[in-house]
Model the fold of this input.
Amino acid sequence: MSECFAVWAPTAQQVRVRVGEADHPMREAHGGWWEAEVDCPPDARYGYLLDDGPKPLPDPRSPRQPDGVHALSQRFAVDPASWTDQSWTGRQLAGAVLYELHIGTFTPEGTFAAASAKLDHLVSLGVTFVEVMPVNAFNGEWGWGYDGVDWYAVHEAYGGPGEFAKFVDACHGKGLAVCLDVVYNHLGPSGNYLNQFGPYLNPNATIWGPRVNLDGADSDEVRRYVVDNALRWFEEFHVDALRLDAVHALADATAIPILAELASAAEALSAKAGRPLSLIAESDLNDPRTTTPQAAGGDGLAAQWADDVHHAIHTAVSGERQGYYGDFGSFACLATTLESVFFHAGTYSSFRRRRHGKPLDRRTAQASSFVVYTCNHDQVGNRAVGDRPSAYLSPGQLAVKAALVLLSPFTPMLFMGEEWGASTPFQFFSSHPEPEIARATSEGRRSEFAEHGWPASEVPDPQDPATFQRSKLDWSEPSREPHERLLRCYRDLIALRAAHGEFANPRLTDVRTEHDEKAGWFLLRRGRFTVAANLAAQEAPVPVSGEVVLAWDEPLPDGERSILPAHSFAVFQEG
Done:
């Protein structure tokens, strides 16, 4: 069978493609592309030899790296006949509940197949989107996935591309949409051969690795590389949404930002496919432009993560004030974020030591365009010991955080295991095989936290296999107390959100809050419903009454007031 091979290598004088044991010359095409047709099986291994280079390099668009990121690529395409989701029409992000998971630690086996076997748990929980942390190919057996170097390939330890397609198909069969976490701001330290092919990289690095060349010379093809990658996940793998990692680290000074280009391409493909295709940005810019429609001058993404809401809820409940939590913690801050999303909105940030953010227009902004959470992989894994809130908060405090997130006007997201207060940590782990990279990763992690007073012996070694193993969920916990009670609470909160339109109302101008920080209570009013939370360690009278439709601990009626037990919430419905 004749297969077409093509690669962009604009600075090369000659390019050959090695297929099996034979090298084949490629002809120069337009725009720095090289092409060749070779008779080979559809799963042939191949690589490119640039000029006089003796070693064949993996394809920058490699669909599979079965032998690792330094080895030959392999031809692969998802068999269209393998799909059973023909009736799947997709899901809008508005009204969704997301569930973030890491394939390697979600189950003991750490594979797509094992994750598929747990989908009934997610269905019974009530979530509608499964958000999968990066699955692109990286060097080593395990890691968070943000050190990927072969963006088009799927990490083999999880099962490879064929198993990922089966996982998406299984999700759709259960009524679950799939959001994939992708990284376009940098590449990992091992197996990155892109710059040998062309000017893929910007000489200015991020804190994680080399930046991608999005606005320099010859960047048009690099941008095409990014956009084509996004469309491939949507089209070939039937993914429903992409979470774009750290878009604030994208260096792009062009008139049409790469985010807007991605949004336009996704919109066009969505019209063709007949199902919603959403882009969600992780951004710490507090910039309304990210989710403002392009017709109004924005980038046009469907949503962005809202860290300020997390910080406000977490600090109010936990009392933590270290690092970037320093400006948060007051009930007034909590009210601001629940009503206006951004706490830093053109105001001074003591952590950054400058003004930060920009106010959004509460009259036009859709609350569903902001993803909020009690925790996520960053807010757990980037703590010194990767301890979850369940390690230092009571079940009642966890329930209060859940109620404020799940009954907020925003799009809520859970992090795997939080629904039962998982006792297992989620630590930062890696498996770099190169001794120098492994040593730098371990020493860098410990020195980072040593600056904040943590003894090196207490910071888990990312390279220790035990760090990875400790981070796997314990699936015996959901059926045991106190985990079982918290899981029931999460299910009830999600069901309540789904049953009543007030909780899905995206109008920020309809959100009202009241609070008494000294007494410890906070009210979130959503139409006929009031979410009353007692954040204090003792009972508190709250100025609300009515039918209690859901509660962590039952409040006591007291005339027009109710007495709320310590560290608890109750949802009241007006007559």
In short: The two ends are 72 Å apart (CA to CA). The longest helix spans residues 219-235.
